[in-house]
């Protein structure tokens, strides 16, 4: 990965540079890197570190860049819709204070709202793709100009791309984060609680104020860097250990590279997942309080006191470990991993067909 000077860490949902990467280095390793990048996008933490595409001057002038972004948006929307039930199960399990299995959670949700309730929160999850992609792309272009300075033609290093991508992800997340909060609230809502996205936004603002739309913002931002750093470090370490342990610097096989990539992504997710869980609980706090005050829920949510010190990020960490143990920090991680493979597969296939329809030639 470090060998390819033009390699960019973490591809977005479109796979614009696959052909260049395959030509630049070993095709098997490039496939594994792409697989890791796609895993990162569909795990609970990781997608905010995706570095936007670098488009050539010709692609910018001919308008090919927006076709790639549109194709990626379509692929992301379809894959999120297809895996929405698993995503909602994950969110419900994250806010539980007691052990609950996937089948039990699914039965309770179906009993409360029927089959259609499994897609609650998916509308806002798909809608936020467009503004998030546009903001990240614009921010990334600005960061590139700042980093390059007067030498606009200079090729950026991997570290510089990483910094630019992280900054772009942080900027876009800061602006669209209220949509993340809305997604969590809509996923956890009971039948009849909200009429739609606009009604949910109005009621949250009226009852809780504007600050409610940024609950969980800090752990959301903090969770990005551990995932990306651990993923990158573990992958390179495992690959180098393998090469060092074999004679004549034998290059690892496809299966070894795939194992290294899967292991690094899984470890990155395991280390950063507690921050994702705390983020979700903070986002759902007021919703859980209001629901528990007005009615007895079939799926008991965490009750909270808006003025409690335990409702801060660090306070909530201590409370979870004290009352639920370390396993409480990993509730919902199983459906989170289960949705990765179908999401990646669907996204790639849809992107291929969308690209062809938009006139993009794919390798």
List the helices and strands and how they pair.
Layout: H1 18-24, H2 27-42, H3 57-62, H4 64-82, H5 84-94, H6 102-113, H7 122-127, H8 129-148, H9 158-188, H10 197-208, H11 217-222, H12 224-244, H13 254-294, H14 313-324, H15 333-338, H16 340-357
Structural account:
- The protein contains 16 helices and no strands.
- By secondary structure, it is mainly alpha-helical.
- The longest helix is centred in the C-terminal third of the chain and has 41 residues.
- The N terminus is likely disordered.
- It folds into 2 domains: 166 residues, Mitochondrial carrier domain (Mitochondrial carrier fold); 100 residues, no CATH class.
- This is Calcium-binding mitochondrial carrier protein SCaMC-2-A isoform X3.
- InterPro entries: GDC-like, MCP, MCP_dom_sf, MCP_transmembrane.
- Keywords: Membrane, Mitochondrion, Mitochondrion inner membrane, Repeat, Transmembrane, Transmembrane helix, Transport.
- It is found in: Mitochondrion inner membrane.
- Belongs to the mitochondrial carrier (TC 2.A.29) family.
């Amino acid at each position: 990965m470090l060998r390819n000077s033009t390699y960019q860490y973490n591809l977005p949902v479109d796979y614009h540079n696959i052909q260049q990467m395959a030509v630049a280095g070993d095709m098997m390793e490039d496939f594994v890197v792409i697989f890791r990048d796609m895993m990162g996008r569909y795990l609970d933490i990781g997608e905010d570190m995706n570095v936007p595409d670098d488009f050539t001057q010709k692609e910018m002038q001919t308008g090919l860049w927006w076709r790639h972004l549109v194709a990626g948006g379509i692929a992301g929307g379809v894959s999120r819709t297809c895996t929405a039930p698993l995503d909602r199960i994950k969110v419900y399990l994250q806010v539980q204070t007691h052990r609950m299995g996937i089948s039990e959670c699914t039965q309770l949700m179906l009993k409360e709202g029927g089959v259609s309730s499994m897609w609650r929160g998916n509308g806002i999850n798909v809608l936020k793709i467009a503004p998030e992609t546009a903001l990240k792309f614009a921010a990334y272009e600005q960061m590139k100009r700042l980093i390059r300075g007067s030498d606009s033609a200079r090729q950026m290093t991997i570290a510089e791309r990483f910094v630019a991508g992280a900054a772009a992800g942080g900027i876009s997340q800061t602006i669209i984060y209220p949509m993340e909060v809305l997604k969590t609230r809509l996923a956890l809502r009971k039948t009849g609680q909200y009429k739609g996205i606009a009604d949910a936004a109005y009621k949250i603002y009226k009852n809780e104020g504007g600050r409610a739309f940024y609950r969980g913002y800090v752990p959301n931002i903090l969770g990005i860097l551990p995932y990306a750093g651990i993923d990158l470090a573990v992958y390179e370490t495992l690959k180098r250990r393998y090469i060092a342990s074999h004679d004549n610097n034998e290059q690892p096989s496809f299966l070894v590279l795939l194992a290294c990539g899967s292991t690094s992504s899984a470890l990155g997710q395991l280390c950063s997942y507690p921050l994702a869980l705390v983020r979700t609980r903070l986002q759902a706090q007021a919703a859980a309080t209001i629901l528990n005050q007005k009615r007895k829920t079939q799926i008991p949510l965490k009750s909270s006191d808006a003025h409690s010190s335990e409702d801060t990020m660090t306070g909530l960490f201590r409370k979870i470990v004290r009352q639920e143990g370390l396993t409480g920090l990993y509730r919902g991680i199983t459906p989170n991993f289960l949705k990765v493979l179908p999401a990646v597969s669907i996204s790639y296939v849809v992107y291929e067909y969308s690209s062809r329809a938009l006139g993009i030639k794919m390798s």
